[in-house]
């Protein structure tokens, strides 16, 4: 029944507050007279009640004690009541002092006023708390009670407690706060005990815990993984408090408490980059980003905004994603002029027009076809876009005096087993050769890294879709591993490497430890509350065309040099002379226009990149038959 009661109008609360104060004054008067009312003169009592009512009407209207919703009474309501009672008592005291010579006007003395103020505060607070608990009971008595613990006994932890207590859709029993700070353990926060994680691990043997909420923003990824593994082993759901920047005016709500995602567990500690160096180079410059609407390109654009370039040209051939990026940037109301330029990077005239019109000083080349099986089926497109497209953009960069050209490459260019990886290695070779040829002009820098979390076509997004559909989750091979990096981290390192390069380098990033994809699938299934191979099956489909079990960041023939940034290294590769490859790239142009020449095209790729050995592909028959042209592979 109480659940159906709407919020009481403010005027009713206002009248209740006035009535409670009158009752408190009457109670104070009775106690002051030792419960003997026969000696009271009723005219002064009536005058006092009239005075009290008028003064409280003014005070309570000014302080707005009625403005809070009674069932959600909190500290702010208590403060308003204290202020109102203090002002009311002060007015009575002033009237008492002013009418000391008129004994029969009012019934006011110091004892009555003190008793009145005490009773008023207690009664005003008490009826609010009573209503609050009554509604809480009515809301929860038929709901199953969930036992919850909060990791992090700080401000975010207290805010989380408030959110859980006010959640109308859950009946919460907060068992404990957990904190790794020994100074906090064995104490209490807001009446709830604070325990160490070791104590919590013993606690779960006695108490059935339903949820653990991580409300710490300083927790390391390794620590977070340890907590999640423990909870998954004990069938405890793990939720995450949103970061501060997603709180609305310093608050968040229960709907923002989300199940922890696999991306949260694959993240690594925040990286530090040289923002000043990047800013000094980028500020006031005209910057071209190819593939600007893609996962990497769009994030590069977002991060460039912070360095205040004069202009960013957003070049992409995907109309809808480019339009979405334009709308996003418009909503940001940035001062940077961002111009969408819809074009194919292989269109010579369109690219020439772009360079002539905008005269970019920096180029971030992120445009590429990246899906391995797709490129294995369409090698001419891989060569056209990844090889010839890169050649065109880099040649135009030299022609139009671009200061820096930063190319985004991939770990699949190392000892490639597929057309896509080989095409990216060929792009690296051309950019290196061009850099050596024009040593005192445009600086060409290549960055190489592995898979990024949440990118378009990412295995994680694929697994999510399969889990939501009830499975099965498809993994190509039980032993397949991949490196992972978040999109923002990868793009930060691209900007940093681009700023530190002197030209001709291939920068490789510290990708951390490789992740077994089968284990990743199992963990994701468990994070969604299912049991692998019971609730949701995991099936193995076999390696796809061109796919290999282990990705590499460096080939056997390479080693690395350290840079001032611990996560960025320089790959030492065999040098490539531009005159050795120019004729072969001209040959690619002829072959790319004829689908009948695909075998000849791939054979030429293998000749230019001798370490390109096809795996699980129709092009395996070409291995060993390609004529080595003598340029060296290196990738």
Task: Write out key terms for the chains shown.
single chain; 635 residues; alpha/beta; Rossmann fold; 3 domains; 9-stranded mixed sheet; 7-stranded mixed sheet; 20 helices; 22 strands; elongated; disordered C terminus
CATH A-level architecture of the largest domain: 3-Layer(aba) Sandwich
* Largest sheet strand order: 10-9-8-11-12-13-18-22-21
Number of separate strands:
22
Mean pLDDT rating? 82
Range of strand content: 5-15%
Shape: elongated
Helix content: 40-55%
CATH level 1 name of the largest domain: Alpha Beta
The CATH homologous superfamily name of the largest domain equals NAD(P)-binding Rossmann-like Domain
Structural class: alpha/beta
Q: Which stretches are low in confidence, meaning pLDDT under 50 for 5 or more residues running?
A: 626-635
The structural domain count equals 3
Separate helix tally: 20
- The whole-angstrom Rg is 35 Å
**Span from first to last CA?**
73 Å
- Would you tell me which CATH topology of the largest domain applies? Rossmann fold
Q: Biggest β-sheet: count, sense, barrel? A: 9 strands, mixed
């Amino acid at each position: 029944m109480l659940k159906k009661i709407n919020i009481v109008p403010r005027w009713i609360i206002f009248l209740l507050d006035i009535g409670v104060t009158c009752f408190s004054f009457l109670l104070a008067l009775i106690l002051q007279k030792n419960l003997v009312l026969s000696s009271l003169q009723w005219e002064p009592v009536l005058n006092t009640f009239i005075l009290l009512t008028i003064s409280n009407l003014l005070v309570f209207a000014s302080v707005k004690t009625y403005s809070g919703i009674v069932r959600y009474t909190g500290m702010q309501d208590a403060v308003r009541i204290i202020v109102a009672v203090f002002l009311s008592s002060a007015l009575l005291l002033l009237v008492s002092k002013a009418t000391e010579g008129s004994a029969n006007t009012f019934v006011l003395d110091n004892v009555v006023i003190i008793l009145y103020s005490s009773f008023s505060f207690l009664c005003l607070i008490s009826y609010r708390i009573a209503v609050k608990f009554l509604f809480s009971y009515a809301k929860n008595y038929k709901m199953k009670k969930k036992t919850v613990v909060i990791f992090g006994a700080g401000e975010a932890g207290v805010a989380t407690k408030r959110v859980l207590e006010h959640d109308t859709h859950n009946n919460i029993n907060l068992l404990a706060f957990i904190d790794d700070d020994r100074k906090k353990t064995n104490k209490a926060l807001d009446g709830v005990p604070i325990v160490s994680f070791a104590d919590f691990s013993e606690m779960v043997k006695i108490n059935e815990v339903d949820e653990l909420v991580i409300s710490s923003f300083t927790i390391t990824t390794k620590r977070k993984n340890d907590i999640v593994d423990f909870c998954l082993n004990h069938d405890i759901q793990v939720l995450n408090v949103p970061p501060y920047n997603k709180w609305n005016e310093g608050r968040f709500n229960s709907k923002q408490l989300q199940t922890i995602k696999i991306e949260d567990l694959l993240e690594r500690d925040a990286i530090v980059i040289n923002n000043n160096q990047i800013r000094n180079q980028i500020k006031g410059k005209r910057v071209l980003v190819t593939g600007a609407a893609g996962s990497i390109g769009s994030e590069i654009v977002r991060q460039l905004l912070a360095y205040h370039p004069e202009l960013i040209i957003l070049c992409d051939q995907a109309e809808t994603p480019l339009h979405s990026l334009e709308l996003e940037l418009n909503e940001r109301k940035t001062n940077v002029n961002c111009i969408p330029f819809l074009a194919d990077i292989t269109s010579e005239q369109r690219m020439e027009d772009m360079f002539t019109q905008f005269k970019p000083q920096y180029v971030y080349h992120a445009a590429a076809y990246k899906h391995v099986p797709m490129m294995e089926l369409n090698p001419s497109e891989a060569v056209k876009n990844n090889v010839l497209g890169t050649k065109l953009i880099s040649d135009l960069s030299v022609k139009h005096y671009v200061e820096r050209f930063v190319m985004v490459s991939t770990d699949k260019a190392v000892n490639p087993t597929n057309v896509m990886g080989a095409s990216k290695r060929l792009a690296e070779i051309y950019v290196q050769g061009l850099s050596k040829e024009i040593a005192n002009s445009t600086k060409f820098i290549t960055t190489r890294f592995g898979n990024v979390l949440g990118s378009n076509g990412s295995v994680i997004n694929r697994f999510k879709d399969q889990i939501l559909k009830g499975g099965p989750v498809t993994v190509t091979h039980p032993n397949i591993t991949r490196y992972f990096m978040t999109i923002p981290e990868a793009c930060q390192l691209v900007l940093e490497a681009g700023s530190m390069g002197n030209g001709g380098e291939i920068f490789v990033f510290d990708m951390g430890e490789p992740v077994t994809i089968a284990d990743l699938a199992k963990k994701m299934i468990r994070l969604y509350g299912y049991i692998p191979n019971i609730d949701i099956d995991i099936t193995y489909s076999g390696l796809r065309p061109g796919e290999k079990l282990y990705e590499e960041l460096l080939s056997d023939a390479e080693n690395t040099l350290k840079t001032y940034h611990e996560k960025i290294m320089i790959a030492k590769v065999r040098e490539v002379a531009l005159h050795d490859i120019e004729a072969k790239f001209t040959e690619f142009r002829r072959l790319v226009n004829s689908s009948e020449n695909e075998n000849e095209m791939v054979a030429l790729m293998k000749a230019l990149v001798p370490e390109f050995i096809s795996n699980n592909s129709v092009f395996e028959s070409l291995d060993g038959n390609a004529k080595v042209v003598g340029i060296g592979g290196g990738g």
